[in-house]
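Q: what does this look like with magnesium ion bound?
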Amino acid sequence: YSAKRDKTRFMVYTQEDDLERQEQLRLAQELPQAIESDELRLHYQPMVRMKDREVIGVEALVRWQHPDKGMLFPDSFIPLAENSGSIEALTRWVLKAAIEQGSRWLSKGTRLYVSVNISALILHNPVFPDTVAKLLSKTGFPADLLKLEITESAIISDVVRASEVVISLHDMGVRVSIDDFGTGYTSLAYLRKLPVDEIKIDKSFVLNMNTVADDAVIVRTLLDLARNLDLSVVAEGIEDINLWNSLKELGCDIGQGYYMSRPIDVEAFSEWLSDQPWQQDF
Ligand code: C2E
Ligand code: MG
Ligand code: MG
Ligand code: MG
């Protein structure tokens, strides 16, 4: 390729990038107000104990019900929140909403843990455990029904600070799970040093484990690793009964995926919970 052609391509991309950047900038600017005026929503996806198909928890996944753009998914605004300083407010909103919903279920006799995703920046904030403690004490929600999903990169990028926060959370009784496990570079030593309870095998390995031999090997290896370190394992991305069966056979503890249910709002979740349409396959 010629330099001239590269230059042209560069210019074309810059114009598109500019529009894209303006759009992102606007969303980022709107976000603080959106959080205040309750435009965020939580959708819940069931987490199922595989040995007896008991629904034991939910992952709370945030959406933004944007007045003009409709429902936005987290990949389109979480990075903006992280870069524009809104992630703290967003996380607080999500945690509060998830804990309150968990408390409502509990008061109706439905004991489910709620699992919340935590960005790296939050994990490096030494006052975060305090924020969590306050939310728990205000609602009376049991700490051991709260699970926080952190990523490997959040640990690696600042091991000292992340460890302190994880240790405080663990001491409070909050569960800690490593999300997207296998996609990062967690030294196995950290897994042993940190009081982590669980790993979540990333869906990119699970989705094709029945067709791609390498993926099956990775899933099996991660399950072995977790067992040897006495960690519980969640597999995300279970899209069909074959994946369910394979993972169950391999002794995976908890399953999550479209086969059981997509993430849905609280009303749809209640209905799903009482009907459990997926159980009809068994
Ligand atoms: P994640 O924590 O790894 O969540 C799993 C994602 O996989 C969710 O996407 C979920 O809808 C999707 N998923 C679940 N089962 C299946 C399946 O069987 N097949 C396929 N193809 N996908 C499945 P979602 O809701 O779009 O969330 C994307 C990511 O956004 C999450 O990935 C998480 O990293 C982040 N996120 C979501 N909510 C929050 C939040 O409140 N705070 C922060 N910091 N991040 C969040
Ligand atoms: Mg997650
Ligand atoms: Mg995940
Ligand atoms: Mg993931």
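Residues 45, 61-62, 73-75, 78, 94, 117, 119, 149, 179-180, 203, 236-239, 256-258, 263 surround C2E (ligand 1) (CB under 6 Å). The longest strand covers residues 54-66.
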